[in-house]
Amino acid sequence: MRSKIQNGEFQEGHLIPKEVELAALFQVSRPTVRQAVQELVNQGYLEKRKRRGTIVTSRKISQEFTHVIESYNKEMNSKGLTTATQVLSFRSEQASAEVQAALGLDHGAKVYRLERLRFANEQPVVWVTSFVPFRPLPKLGQVDFTQQSLYTELAKAQHKIVRVRRKLEVMAADESTSVMLHIAVNAPIFYFHTWGATVSGEIFEYSVAKYRGDINSFQFEINQRS
Description:
Elements: H1 2-6, H2 19-26, H3 30-43, E1 46-49, E2 53-56, E3 61-63, H4 72-78, E4 83-94, H5 97-103, E5 110-120, E6 123-133, H6 150-156, E7 163-172, H7 175-181, E8 188-197, E9 203-212, E10 216-218
Parallel strand pairs: 3-10
Antiparallel strand pairs: 1-2, 4-5, 5-6, 6-9, 7-8, 8-9
Helix pairs in contact: 2-3
């Protein structure tokens, strides 16, 4: 049933076949069909409507952060989606070679490492790990990032992010990503690297983010060079 939704055979906004028809189509019992339908409802593929039936829902979230600097919550709320953030870990540590190079730090410098799982309408959407320099932000460790935006806190500390550069790859989900994002192992994910710069041009944020491929799409705005 999921495959038929994904390939468009069961079309968005349309009713799925009746329970007895699905049982005959897949040669299974009606209780098995009922269980499968409920699982797809739980995953967001289907929605039960009173006095109408079960319809195929629109599952793609159009992400605009590729050309707009805006907080995750603000962007999702503007689309009518409810959001939540789970902080998986937040600590200071010595920067790895990758993070050190990304932020232009000296060898041995410390950074904050903020790992978050972000939800829309109770579904996990993105698993993101962010790094920012430790030394200029001694009080950042006191912030509750289940409620607060990283970019807002950086702006409060006079390190507002005004320009970003992003690198996009398409990858297959490994086991840990599968568990975090509630997707199958080897399911496609969008893998973003982000470098956030202040008005002075200093890179003050580096993050890696894994977006579910099944419920996200991305908008890009391209201008012709003069």
